Amino acid sequence: MQTIERDRKSVWHPYSAPESSPLFEVVQTEGVHLTLASGKKLVDGMSSWWAAIHGYRNAHIEEAVTKQLQAMPHIMFGGLTHEPAVALCERLIDWSPGNLSRVFLSDSGSVAVEVAIKTALQYWMARGEPLRQKLLTLLGGYHGDTFATMAVCDPVNGMHDFFRGNLQEHFFAERPTCRYDERFEEQHISHFSTLLGEHQRSIAAVILEPIVQGAGGMWFYSPQFLARIRELCSEIGVPLILDEIATGFGRTGRLFGANHADVEPDIMCLGKALTGGTLSLAATLVSEEICETIGSGQPGILAHGPTFMGNPLACAAAGASLDLMESTPWRERVIAIEDQLRRELEPCRELPGVSDVRTLGAIGVVELDDPVDMGIIQPAFVEEGVWIRPFGKLVYLMPPFIISPAELSRLTAAIHSVLSRHHCGRSH
Q1: Residue 372 belongs to a domain with what CATH number?
Q2: Is 272 among the catalytic positions?
Q3: Among 293, 326, 353, 358, which residue's CB has the most CB atoms within a 10 Å radius?
Q4: Catalytic residue status for 56
Q5: Is 41 assigned a catalytic role?
Q6: CATH code, 292
Q7: Catalytically annotated residue among 56, 107, 123, 142
Q8: pLDDT in tens, 132-176
Q9: In Å, how far are 95, 206, 322, 329 from 326, measured between CA atoms?
Q10: Catalytic residue selected from 243, 266, 393, 396
Q11: Is-catalytic flag, 15?
């Protein structure tokens, strides 16, 4: 029996019906290419959900993982420690903006955000204000698929609106309307400011994605908007959580999204590209003040502990990925990708059914009037020799940083070609 037939009898894929369709079997990855069982090679425009920034089968990362595998693939992190984890945490603290002084390691982005939320709640418990249980966030955001994280995703247009009655209810400010390159006005943040002022005694933290709202809409907003949020949080003493899981490690053209606005978070979440897309690992970084407050309160511990926390293989992979960030010209590569995406996606703006085209760093987005039909558009992209995975109304690219201009052109040309033939999934 073929792999795909077996898959449809036993596997449940993400955001899919029990029998996922269409489905394509991958047998090998190399550089920016996926090789299918049929032998067809696809140029990857997704970086495996934005994680494989150095491409696939990077020799330096593989060497680090192989070496660690021979010494110690895993050990529990309760009461024990090891060099790969300590070295990684030290580097993340050194690289991160502001006074983040402690790192909690986990195994997925959703868990990293869960830990951030729990940290904020425990912070106020330790300060004798246990009724601060609400979060303030922005419409259009996405922070994960677990229940606490779903509760701070967009409540109307997000992927989790049908769970609404089972989720904690938080405060949602209007999505920033000022684009990345547009002038910020105080009116843009008036709704956020009003909510923060009215509910400050019940708000435990503000949480948002810096500069780029990812899976909630691929929206790029003004750095001045983010800077003003930091000011407002500081004025009333509410911790700011920055979810850098999608924006961290160079995707926007800066090391972190926060760097665009020169802001310092109180809590920061990392994941996805942390290991260069090789192994699952995430991190929650916390400020010294929050750490000291929780440590001096009751029960004096952070009440969380994943089984595979601090996995040595994943920590070794992350360390090697950070080596590559230090030794390769990733900034220049991302700038070049941004310039090419802007030029080559712009013609899509004239296509029927396209409402917007936008680019920032190594992110290119074509937004449609109506959602795509994945049963039509996904095979069409594969036929073009590319792997592009749209969602909703968004056809977007987040390629590996090592992609060549010719390979990137294959991706942008495929988007124009497929959208020209399939208006929102309907054949012309």
Answers
A1: 3.90.1150.10
A2: yes
A3: 358
A4: no
A5: no
A6: 3.40.640.10
A7: 142
A8: 999 999 999 999 999 999 999 998 877 777 888 899 999 999 999
A9: 11, 31, 6, 8
A10: 243
A11: yes
